[in-house]
Design a protein that fits this description.
- This protein is an alpha/beta fold.
- It is about 40% helix and about 20% strand.
- It has two domains: about 180 residues, Alpha-Beta Complex (Spore Coat Polysaccharide Biosynthesis Protein SpsA, Chain A); about 55 residues.
- The protein has eleven helices and twelve strands.
- Strands 1, 2, 3, 4, 5, 6, 7, 9, 11 and 12 form a ten-stranded mixed β-sheet that branches. It has a two-stranded antiparallel ribbon with strand order 8-10.
- It is globular, with a radius of gyration of 19 Å.
Length: about 290
């Protein structure tokens, strides 16, 4: 059994997929394609013949990763976005660190932007206050403080290994044993929210989520889903609150988001916000989750 199986979900993943797969050359790699039409499948098949390629209808990030993990044979899953690539021997460092942390279900590396700057990847479990600081722009008053930027843990030191609530899903090393215990991604989260839900479930079951800066991954950001799906992002907030805090809290979250987007939609060139207002104003939280 290999130490790790790399799972990469693709959907129109050019131009980054080649660099992504080259960074994990020699590993056991599964690519799950969610219906690409841009030549991604042909490139993977022709340039990476050792990769196991699975084609399916678009089932979102969680559904794509689940398909790959069900076919994986490693004792760890390494879930890598198609617009991300490992720096040097970062994957081996992640595995070595995880082996020394048997209580860790998830270990995440330090993320870098393409220009080499830090991409902050540590997150806190959602609360109404925390999403308020995002949607009312409160965090912009003091982005490097945890007080006013609690959702993105503005005061977090990305220079040392520490536990966290959850981590950006661009690159995650996941212990198979932990996933066997709590289950895979909840596919009701089509895009966005699937990683915070999963890591909430890990922590509720007694496992840890750990940030480890000794390994690095470059992440483009947004390319793996085209930068769209604004409504799906809003729906994921409601779904998380409904699942983990109950329907009343989900409804409070809907109202909070609706008020914030109504204010933001007053400014020019706010098409996404106006779209969000129409969505959030078209029914209560339970109705929106059934759509």
């Amino acid at each position: 059994m290999p130490d790790v199986t790399v799972v990469v979900v693709t959907w129109n993943a050019l131009p980054w997929i080649e660099e992504c797969l080259r960074s994990v050359a020699g590993e056991d790699v599964i690519v799950v394609d969610n219906g690409s039409t841009d030549g991604t499948v042909d490139l993977v098949r022709e340039q990476f013949p050792d990769v196991r390629l699975i084609e399916q209808d678009n089932r979102g990030m969680g559904g794509g990763n689940n398909t790959g993990m069900r076919e994986a044979v490693g004792r760890y899953f390494f879930l890598l976005n198609s617009d991300a690539w490992v720096v040097g021997d970062g994957l081996a460092k992640l595995v070595a660190f995880a082996d020394a942390q048997p209580e860790a279900a998830v270990v995440g590396p330090r993320l870098r932007n393409v220009d080499g700057t830090l991409q902050r990847s540590v997150r806190a479990e959602p609360t109404l206050w925390r999403i308020s600081t995002e949607y009312f722009f409160i965090r912009k008053l003091a982005p490097r403080t945890t007080l006013l930027n609690p959702l993105y843990v503005g005061g977090f030191d990305h220079g040392s290994a520490r536990e966290s609530d959850w981590l950006s899903g661009a690159a995650l090393l996941v212990r198979r044993e932990a996933a066997d215990e709590v289950g895979l991604f909840d596919e009701d989260f089509f895009m966005f929210g699937e990683e915070v839900d999963w890591m909430t479930r890990f922590r509720r079951a007694g496992w840890k989520v750990v940030f480890y800066p000794g390994a690095e991954v470059v992440h483009v950001g947004g390319a793996s889903h085209g930068g769209g799906l604004y409504i799906e992002n809003l729906r994921s907030h409601l779904r998380w609150f409904d699942k983990h805090k109950g329907p009343e809290e989900a409804e409070r979250a809907r109202i909070l988001l609706l008020v914030s987007l109504r204010l933001r939609a007053l400014t020019p060139r706010r098409g996404h916000e106006r779209e969000g207002v129409r969505f959030l104003g078209s029914g209560n939280a339970q109705a929106l989750l059934r759509k």
